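Below is a filled-in request sheet from our internal design queue. Each sheet records the structural input a requester submitted and the sequence that came back. We keep these sheets so that new team members can see what a complete request looks like end to end.

REQUESTER: design group, bay 2
PRIORITY: normal
MODE: inverse folding
CHAIN LENGTH: 325
BACKBONE (tokenized):
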């Protein structure tokens, strides 16, 4: 997008609008685009969106599809691939940090917002999907056994007819709880933990959240790198996890907070005698905390050959709306 006709803030809005249109499976209108932009920190109304859409139409990057809204053209797809690489790299971590800050769950009242992943499956596969989820939720390889079944009107992602949305708790909730309890937290890496003999052995692969334009969990799942079900049944395999960092001076407070969280059913802390392997040691005044990913449930469904579409770190949801299974 030439800078001679639009300044950088406008370019960023145009790129974000292209991204939103691409993420929508069907044509999408200005009102819904405005809602999505506001969720991502762009304060712009429907009228402003229409102005930006006219620019994209003139450049041949979007086109109208009747009264339903806009879709991307081939030129729009190509521009989205090229545009503002640095901005794209920062999108994942920016969204995560916003979710961390917005987490309001209170350990004492057991009420408030937690972060959830949203997975979409066909209704015909629902029973098999729930069998997979229950197996993972009865293991140590997730952070909570609470889920919520959601319909289109209650989700931030589109749930097509004939499908159902399943919300599982995201491990980013841990970061939000730590922050709410006065502990500065910095999410660092998403990766794979190898399990041997039923015990965590080592992180075999990691991706820095600040160095990717795609959520690391989604990358590992798309590459079929997990063996969650095998790990549960045989005590060996690879599962998803992530690492956050806090000041070493907050270690004792962190332990108190995570113990309290575990009592209300929010766990997932990776525990091992080998602190060196898990980076859970004092270094430069910081300490790194590894936690199993809530999205391991979705990975298990995918491993079973059941079609599933998953959106990691998807939205906030009231803890009290999530039910124990």
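RETURNED SEQUENCE:
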């Amino acid at each position: 997008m030439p800078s001679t006709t639009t300044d950088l803030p406008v370019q960023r809005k145009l790129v974000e609008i292209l991204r939103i249109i691409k993420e929508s499976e069907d044509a999408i209108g200005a009102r819904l685009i405005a809602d999505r932009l506001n969720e991502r920190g762009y304060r712009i109304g429907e009228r402003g969106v229409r102005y930006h859409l006219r620019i994209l139409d003139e450049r041949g990057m979007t086109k109208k599809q009747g009264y339903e809204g806009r879709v991307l053209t081939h030129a729009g797809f190509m521009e989205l691939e090229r545009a503002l690489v640095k901005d794209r790299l920062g999108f994942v971590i920016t969204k995560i940090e916003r979710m961390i800050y917005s987490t309001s769950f209170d350990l004492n009242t057991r009420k408030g917002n937690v972060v959830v992943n949203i997975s979409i499956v066909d209704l015909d596969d629902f029973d098999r999907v729930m069998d997979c989820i229950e197996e993972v939720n009865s293991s140590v390889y997730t952070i909570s056994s609470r889920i919520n079944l959601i319909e289109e009107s209650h989700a931030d992602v589109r749930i097509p007819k004939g499908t159902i949305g399943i919300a599982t708790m995201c491990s980013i909730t841990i970061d939000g709880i730590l922050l709410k309890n006065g502990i500065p937290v910095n999410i660092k890496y998403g990766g794979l933990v190898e399990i041997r003999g039923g015990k965590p052995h080592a992180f075999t692969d990691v991706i820095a959240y600040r160095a990717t334009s795609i959520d690391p969990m989604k990358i590992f799942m798309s590459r079929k790198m997990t063996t969650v079900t095998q790990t549960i049944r045989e005590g060996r395999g690879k599962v998803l996890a992530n690492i956050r960092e806090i000041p070493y001076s907050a270690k004792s407070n962190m332990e108190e907070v995570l113990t309290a969280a575990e009592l209300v059913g929010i766990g997932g802390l990776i525990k091992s005698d080998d602190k060196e392997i898990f980076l859970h040691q004092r270094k430069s005044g910081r300490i790194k905390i590894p936690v199993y990913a809530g999205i391991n449930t979705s990975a298990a469904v995918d491993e079973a050959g059941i079609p599933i579409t998953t959106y990691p770190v998807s939205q906030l949801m009231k803890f009290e709306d999530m039910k124990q299974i």
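SHEET NOTES:
- The chain has two domains: 8-83, 102-324.
- The two ends are 49 Å apart (CA to CA).
FILED BY: M.R.
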